[in-house]
Design brief:
- The complex is a heterodimer of chains A (98) and B (356).
- Chain A has 98 residues and is α+β, with helices and mostly antiparallel strands.
- Chain A is built from 2 helices and 4 strands, in the order βαβββα.
- Chain A has one domain (6-97): Glutaredoxin, CATH 3.40.30.10.
- Chain A has a 4-stranded mixed beta sheet with strand order 2-1-3-4, with helices on one face.
- In chain A, β1, α1 (21-29) and β2 form a beta-alpha-beta unit.
- The longest helix of chain A is centred in the C-terminal third of the chain and has 23 residues, at 75-97.
- By secondary structure, chain B is an alpha+beta fold.
- Chain B is 49% helix and 10% strand.
- Chain B has 13 helices and 7 strands.
- In chain B, the strands form 2 sheets. In chain B, strands 2-5-1-6-7 form a 5-stranded antiparallel beta sheet. Chain B has a two-stranded antiparallel ribbon with strand order 3-4.
- In chain B, a hairpin with a 5-residue loop joins β3 (170-173) and β4.
- Chain B is flat, with a radius of gyration of 34 Å.
- Chain B starts with a helix and ends with a helix.
- Classes of the chains: A alpha+beta (98), B alpha+beta (356).
- Chains A and B meet through α1 and β2 of A and β6 and α12 of B.
């Protein structure tokens, strides 16, 4: 996953719900130095019997915001969706550099 | 031929620790040992020789029964000499022996961050326990370890759904060719495999009351577990204040007391640890539940004292109530008796006066 262009990750989930799977896996995909390289990561754990759906909010350097519905999308499609935008930013950055 | 030279004939597929953990019924295991075997045909040569190497004389060849199963290598459903199988065994024994397990998700901690987190944890636990006491012993045996999620998941299933005591004995051949009954009920056995498979492949969902059904949603992603050998709220509170501080009840250690905690490496490590749940004495708790356990002041002893006090005071009330009924009855009867006595006395006294 390309994480260079992500500035904010906010998740909120109930770990006891099977739907929280993709949100939790997304957190584990962030690199070890994500916080040092300027990504704000906030995680809120919901109590065990809460029925709130898990949320995942991703913000990019260009200001684009993504609210991903974790209940239906699996981790693969989330990564795909995030990468689609990241690749575009990567392309722009490469062109600006070159 | 001595039993020593016979022992050399045993294949050594399994390493020693794998052997010690298997729960073959002891008596039958003894039957399988070569020491119970009478010495086979006399050897012509008194020299030392090994069965694994080429035997000295053709007449002295030691032949094991074709279906002989060495007691050190009981049959297994999973390959016994792989790291995964041995990890599974270590997890099952951990789950059976540890009453308190906190489950964390760790998101890409580096080795130095792990070291810093463990250092701070050890310091906090040591601060919670006075030196040389039982509490210090508990603190020294607390540990934070990374687990393989899928293997841990299987271990949870084995611990809950497999009962080793209900395994039927099977037949095995001793070194002399005798048939004996042996129980193969270790955690890698076919019986354990079948029991777990039956649960996971059955169509109906697991019962809500089972621990595994409650804890299985947590078994996702990279996991680490914090284990304590006893349920000790004091140690739990110390660990929580380091690993998952929650200010009013479990404040993070102060900057003055533990400057290492505010080290950037330790902080970035702790930020990546996420307390997702826990298992305390076979019950599943979320973060609030764990904090509730951590808040029990004085630990189990205090709870016991509270219970004793409650029972004692209830007993006192009960005795006084029961006593009260008896007392009032006694009082009533006593007053009645005195009345009757007086009545009896009255005419008698009058009669005496009349007679005199």
């Amino acid at each position: 996953m390309i994480t260079r262009f992500i500035t904010d990750v906010t998740t909120r989930f109930n770990p006891f719900s099977p739907q929280a799977r993709s949100a939790r896996l997304f957190l584990s995909f962030l690199p070890p130095n994500a916080r040092l390289s300027g990504v704000n990561i906030t995680t809120q754990l919901l109590p065990r019997h809460s029925a709130d759906p898990p949320t995942l909010y991703v913000k990019f350097k260009d200001g684009k915001e993504m609210n991903i519905d974790c209940t239906k999308t699996n981790i693969k499609s989330i990564v795909e969706e995030v990468d689609r935008h990241s690749r575009m930013l990567q392309k722009n950055a490469d062109l600006a550099d070159g | 031929m001595s039993s020593r030279s016979l022992r050399c004939a045993l294949p050594r597929n399994l390493v020693a620790p794998a052997v010690s953990g298997t729960r073959i019924a002891r008596s039958s295991a003894v039957l399988l040992l070569p020491s119970s075997a009478p010495a086979p045909s006399t050897t012509a040569t008194p020299t030392r020789h090994y069965a694994t190497a080429a035997p000295a004389a053709p007449g002295a060849r030691l032949s094991l029964p074709p279906d002989y199963i060495p007691p050190t290598t009981p049959p297994t459903a999973r390959p016994a000499d792989t790291r995964k199988s041995q990890l599974l065994r270590s997890y099952t024994s951990l789950l059976r022996s540890t009453p308190l397990i906190l489950i964390f998700q760790h998101n890409n901690l580096t080795a130095v961050e792990w070291a810093a987190v463990r250092r701070e944890l050890r310091l906090a636990l040591a601060a919670a326990a006075p030196q040389g006491s039982e509490a210090a012993e508990v603190a020294s045996r607390a540990q934070l370890q990374v687990v393989r999620t899928r293997i841990f998941d299987v271990a949870l299933k084995i611990v809950e759904f497999y009962d080793p005591s209900k395994v039927q004995p099977s037949e095995a051949t001793t070194i002399t060719g005798k048939r004996v009954k042996v129980v193969y009920n270790h955690d890698l056995s076919k019986a354990a495999y079948k029991a777990v498979k039956a649960v996971s492949s059955s169509d109906q969902p697991l019962p809500e009351s089972s621990t595994y059904a409650q804890i299985s949603p947590l078994m996702v992603g990279p996991l680490a577990i914090f284990t304590l050998p006893v349920v000790s709220p004091a140690h739990l509170a110390a660990a929580l204040s380091v690993l998952a501080p929650n200010p009013p009840a479990f404040p993070a250690p102060s900057k003055k007391k533990s400057p290492g905690y505010y080290d950037p490496i330790a902080q970035s490590g702790l930020q990546k640890l996420l307390l997702v749940g826990g298992r305390i004495e076979d019950k599943v708790f979320d973060q609030q539940g764990i904090e509730w356990v951590g808040k029990i002041e004085g630990g189990v002893d205090a709870l016991r004292a509270q219970l004793v006090y409650l029972l004692q005071s209830a007993g006192l009330g009960l005795t006084s109530t029961l006593e009260g009924a008896g007392k009032s009855l006694w009082l009533t009867l006593e007053s009645r008796r005195s009345v009757l006595e007086e009545e009896q006395k009255g005419p008698q006294e009058g009669g005496d006066k009349e007679s005199s």
